[in-house]
Amino acid sequence: MNQTPIYTNNPDQPAYGQPIQQQHQTAHHDDHHHDKHHYHYESHETCCCCVSIRSAPRIIGALDIVYFIFKAWNVIKYRNIPAIFYGDLLIVLLICIPRIVAFYFYQKNHPHHTKHLDTYIKARFYTLMAMLAEVVIISIILFGFSSDVKNSGTDDDSKELASAGSSIINAFIVAFYIVPQCIFMSFDLYYSCALKRAKAEIDRDENRQPLNHV
């Protein structure tokens, strides 16, 4: 015997001639649409005040490539000046190449996979430590040279002149080497932290994905 649906405002009863099963299917579709919308949520977090944090890995990788080209060119250009040649050669071998390789595998395998992005982040932090060690070692060598200049005087006049020369050398070392290197490493650390923020954003996006979506 067929039963005529009763039209009522009760959500458990058919409304507007729509069967209960169809209502549940419609509600499920709406919930699924909400989950998909939630999964594709876009963050407004930025890097360098204007760039989307999701674009940060590619931009920072491009900067690493530019830095590699610049240092490689210096190795070729100053090959007859041992101090510059060997310094830039160490930078290329210990800093630039590991970063380029890590960035290459990040881009090749899956740009949105946090595993390869995490490898790139670690490569940048480790090479930043190598960069810091290089700056410390070179600074010690330069200050050692300045100390030799200071101790080169034999009489009072020459000692005073040597002391003045040593002070000038120390000022140049600080102003034209240590300070620029510290500024450069500060930006480098900021970019590495931006990569960590990008990884955290991707992780949050993956966690938003519904477990059972059709």
Account of the 3D structure:
Strands 1-2 form a two-stranded antiparallel sheet. The longest helix has 53 residues, at 156-208. The chain has five helices and two strands; from the N terminus they run αββαααα. It is mainly alpha-helical and 214 residues long. A hairpin with a 3-residue loop joins β1 (46-47) and β2. It has one domain. Helices cover 75% and strands 2% of the residues. Residues 1-35 are annotated as: Disordered.
Secondary-structure element series: HEEHHHH
- Compute the number of helices: 5
Q: Using only CA atoms, what is the Rg? A: 31 Å
Runs in which pLDDT lies below 50 for 5 or more consecutive residues are: 26-41
Spatial gap, N to C terminus: 37 Å
User: Structural class of the secondary elements?
Assistant: mainly alpha
Level of helix content? Answer: over 70%
Strand-residue proportion:
under 5%
The biggest beta sheet is recorded as: 2 strands, antiparallel
Count of distinct strands: 2
Q: Taking all residues together, what is the mean pLDDT?
A: 80
Number of domains: 1
Q: Provide the spatial order of strands within the biggest beta sheet.
A: 1-2
User: Which overall shape is indicated by the principal axes computed on the Cα atoms?
Assistant: elongated
Biased composition (Polar residues): 1-12
Keywords: Membrane, Transmembrane, Transmembrane helix
Transmembrane segments: 83-105, 125-147, 167-191
Region (Disordered): 1-35
Short description:
The protein has 5 helices and 2 strands.
